[in-house]
Amino acid sequence: MALLDTSIRGGELKIRFSVVVCVAMVLGSACAGAQDAKLVNGYRPTWWKEAVVYQIYPRSFKDSNGDGIGDLKGITSKLDYIKGLGVDVIWLSPHYDSPNADNGYDIRDYRKVMTEFGTMADFDTMLAEIKKRHMRLIIDLVVNHTSDEHRWFVESRKSKDNPYRDFYIWRSPKDGHEPNNDPSFFSGSAWQFDKTTDQYYLHYFAVKQPDLNWDNPKVRAEVYALMKFWLDKGVDGFRMDVIPLISKDQAFPDLTPEQLKNIGTAYANGPHIHEYLQEMNREVLSKYDVMTVGEALGISLEQTPLMVGEDRKELNMIFNFDAIRINRDGAQWKEWTLPEFKALYAKHAAELDTHSWDTVFLSNHDNPRVVSNFGNDSDAFRVPSAKLITTMLLTLRGTPFFYQGDELGMTNYPFQKIGDFDDIEVKNAYKAQVLTGKVPEADFIANLRRTSRDNSRTPMQWDTTANAGFTTGAKPWLAVNPNYTKINAAEELKDPSSPYSYMAKMMKLRKEAPAFVYGDYKDLDPGNAAIFEYTRTLGAEKYLVVLNFSDKATEFSVPDGMKLGKMVISNEGAAEGMTLKAWEARIYRF
Ligand code: NOJ
Ligand code: CA
Questions:
Q1: Are 105 and 366 in contact (CB under 8 A)?
Q2: Are 189 and 202 in contact (CB under 8 A)?
Q3: Cβ 453 vs Cβ 366: under 8 Å
Q4: Quick check: CB of 242 below 6 Å from ligand 1?
Q5: Which ligand sits closest to the CA of 205?
Q6: Is 555 in contact with 508 (CB distance < 8 Å)?
Q7: 4 C-alpha to ligand 2 centroid (Å)
Q8: 142 lines ligand 1 (CB under 6 A)
Q9: Which of 242, 364, 451 to mutate to test the pocket of ligand 1 (most atoms within 8 A of CB)?
Q10: Which of 405, 409, 429, 407 is nearest to 418 (CA)?
């Protein structure tokens, strides 16, 4: 498959001729001097381009009945808190029936709510309350794999001629071994031998997450039906789990040593990926007004337009991991520099023109806490650096996604020992690396303190009562970060200078400034190792964003002839002059 699609590129050229100056957004908008009133600076305006998204990991958000596990009633009780930030869309991590081998990313029944999370009636109430507050809900679509307890798999493994056999990917042993050398993302082989029929099944993730066979049209029909089930209930779209992995090269050639270094890339972009996404769009998505965002594991920036280009009719946008994983070499943490980071955003702006929308995010349930990962979570700098990151995420180009707790500046957890972790990825890696003597235990834990997914899965810190007010029970499913006595929602809601209050102000500012959504992006000082400085311009509306990504006061300058304009926000309150304090962020308007 050729990487450059000429039909997209051609279309782009044509549309770029219609330079449009538009002064307000889709709702209540007035466009001045537009040659084509439908476009804003070349972009087709839609609600999902203008939205700000907040991700909820239900297990860790709010427990309503004291069993130590977050639930849907808990979420419903906190909707005003989310609305108070200015959030437009909630992305809910999996809420379906699951034996929880991978915290809900292993689904047993797509049409049932996880018992610990509540009932379908609780879901319906939550959705109605979200809508009442003029927010939208997207849910997680996890259809690369199911749980091994899903009834399709229970049937499939019974016999070779079971009607559900071809719902999954089964192969006979090769020379008495696995059919090929594919590894699982969660350590070990991606093939699991099943005694009942003496064959292996494929699981790119846990043994309890068998991969569906998308080449079987019956599987695709089932997926489309379950998508309609939720859309007909009124959900507003999907975040699609590891969606580039659904189509496989079913010859299963061995991976080369080079491919083994990055299995995400090796597994993505199977031969029918675009065919299946277009079919899904035709059969389901095109019939609803929805937002879709693909978790684009293994998709390069250059390949992105093929999946999100408007005339492709596949997805609206994807998560590209180049920025969030800039400080990773495989599973290992590594140093990163600001110029490298800026270069990524510049590349995005160049690569994804007006037909391919982008996402902006630096956190989710698979990554550490944003302030610990990209800011400085020490007592001195946690608050300003959390606010600086908020400023950046809300002013870069693309739909911003925040993860629960970002608004409070929640930090990584002080993990000490393997028993402190819950994540299956960690437990499997411990067996494969530490118990085999390949990696010293202390190094393994030290790396996880910076990289573990459990950093972001500790319970939300609501107040200063026991267990941070997350649960009234004695024991939350995962320990609360001990810093909850200082970092919690109750304190921050009262404090006008808290990260929460600042995020609310920033979201309001973004709502009033279409330039942050549809404006051109320009990095003014790409080589500067401390300051990130860029403009967003939409016709006559122009903003300058300056961010000091360092622990020291640092001077900034503007290009010759550029006047600073009026400062519209600063994370440090009153700020003036050309010297930014450590982790100071300012926005000027011209
Ligand atoms: C990506 C999800 O975000 C992650 O949490 C999960 O473990 C894998 N996909 C498998 O579903
Ligand atoms: Ca509960």
A1: no
A2: no
A3: yes
A4: yes
A5: 1
A6: no
A7: 49
A8: yes
A9: 242
A10: 429
Q: Is the model more confident about 518 or about 13?
A: 518
CA distance 499 to 370: 13
25 pLDDT higher than 90: no
Instruction: Kindly state the helix (H) or strand (E) to which residue 543 belongs, with its residue range.
Output: strand 541-548
In sequence order, the 6+-apart residues with CB closer than 8 A to the CB of 69 are 59, 63, 116, 117, 471, 476, 477
Does 454 participate in catalysis according to the annotation?
no
Mean pLDDT of the chain: 93
- Integer Cα distance of 528 and 286 in angstroms: 44
CA of residue 93 to ligand 1 center, whole Å: 10
Pick the catalytic residue: 106, 295, 406, 423?
295
Q: How many helices (H) and strands (E) does the chain have?
A: 19, 24
**366 CA: nearest ligand 1 atom:** 5
Q: Is 106's C-beta closer than 6 angstroms to any atom of ligand 1?
A: no
Tokens of 501: 């209050």
Cβ partners under 8 Å of residue 29, min gap 6: 22, 23, 45
Query: Which single residue is written with the structure tokens 């202390």?
Result: 442
Closest atom of ligand 1 to CA, residue 364: 3
- Find the helix or strand (DSSP H, E) in which 141 lies: strand 136-141
- Which residue has its alpha carbon closest to ligand 1 atom 6? 105
pLDDT digits (tens, 9 = 90+) for 149-193: 999 999 999 999 999 999 999 999 999 999 999 999 999 999 999
What is the pLDDT, as a whole number, of residue 37? 58
| 273: nearest Cα among 247, 297, 295, 251 | 247
Q: Using a 6 Å cutoff on CB, does residue 211 contact ligand 1?
A: no
Please tell me the distance between residue 94's alpha carbon and the centre of ligand 1 in angstroms. 10
